[in-house]
Amino acid sequence: MTKPLREEPDNAAVSRLLPRRRMLALGGAGAVALTGLGAAHALARDASASAGADAVADAVARAKAAALAAGACMELTTEQMEGPYYLDYELFRANVVEDRTGIPLLLVLRVVDAATCAPLRDSAIEIWHCDASGVYSGYTENGNGGGGTPPTEPPGTPPTGAPTGPPPGGGGGGHATPTDDLTWLRGIQMTDRHGFVTFRTVFPGWYAGRAVHVHTKVHTGGTRTADGYTGGRTCHTGQFYFAEETVEATETIAPYAANTATRVTLDQDGIYPGTGTRGGLLELVHDRRRIERGVVGHITMAVDPEAVNDGDLPPGGPAPTASPSPSSGA
């Protein structure tokens, strides 16, 4: 009988990257719990709900129901650049927090075939993003734009009012050489029969030159093995974005309040295509009075499963068409 594949450990004890087979062998290690996941109770709109496993499950169920109710047929999600801080670690896990602190963020992501509207089952969705201070694992010596040797500015003229300076992630300059072997806030999961995955993470911070965002890749045509995701192709490379009012609400809350980098707004960002959901703008649910309880973000991506889109694009990707922006808050 084939031994079932298990998630790799979520705990900070394996923050130093280990060979993949050894990571799988450590699968029984205790995971760090993401406490205070108040986004679940905010989504349920029940002020008395706990933030335990039942509340998290409820938040996931409601976000999935919202995605399904919105309908699967939609235009292709805009391709965007990979950015210089992608690392092909293929850490199969739902909880990517490790030792990072910040506002709990529950990401409920779905992927469908743009031509047939069918969910893409057994595909792989990958995410990576910076921590509350604007730093990426694997590149901690680069800081949040003020240290190390960040990549150069993307080609083109920055939008009016945007701060200048080197964007250390998602802002061009090709792939950067890692400075460490840390792994927090990176993970990959296989989609279920409805095309969903769910990640437990923390709300990203900001750094020089970019709006707050999360990177993503969708892989199709391959299979998960003991060595990771084998075969197939990367059919979509994109980025997720957050409504400005939600990001503003994090600015006075620890540890975000200690981030001294000049924050770029969504309108100032030179990479966000400005097309709402199609361009990666998340649907967000949170308690506007107490965002520290947590945030739920959900989105459906429509892709061509036979395409190859590795993220080798100029800022903003192909020319988009306008679509409505979702609302945020609860």
Mean pLDDT: 77
The 3D shape can be described as globular
Number of helices, counting only DSSP H or I runs of 4 residues or more: 4
The first-to-last residue Cα distance is 48 Å
Strand order of the largest sheet: 4-1-8-7
Strand content: 15-25%
Structural class: alpha+beta
Oligomer: single chain
Specify Rg, calculated over alpha carbons.
Answer: 18 Å
- Count the strands? 8
- Low-pLDDT stretches are 10-51, 146-169, 319-330
SSE order and pairing:
Blueprint: H1 20-25, H2 38-44, H3 53-69, E1 104-113, E2 124-128, E3 186-190, E4 196-202, E5 213-225, E6 228-241, H4 244-250, E7 283-286, E8 295-303
Parallel strand pairs: 1-8
Antiparallel strand pairs: 1-4, 2-3, 2-5, 5-6, 7-8
Structure in words:
The protein has a four-stranded mixed beta sheet with strand order 4-1-8-7. Strands 3-2-5-6 form a four-stranded antiparallel beta sheet, with no helix packed on it. The chain starts with 19 loop residues before the first helix and ends in a 27-residue tail after the last strand. The chain is of the alpha+beta class and 330 residues long. The chain is 11% helix and 20% strand. The model is unreliable at 10-51, 146-169 and 319-330 (pLDDT under 50). The protein has four helices and eight strands, in the order H-H-H-E-E-E-E-E-E-H-E-E. Helix 2 (38-44) packs across helix 3. Strand 5 and strand 6 (228-241) form a beta hairpin.
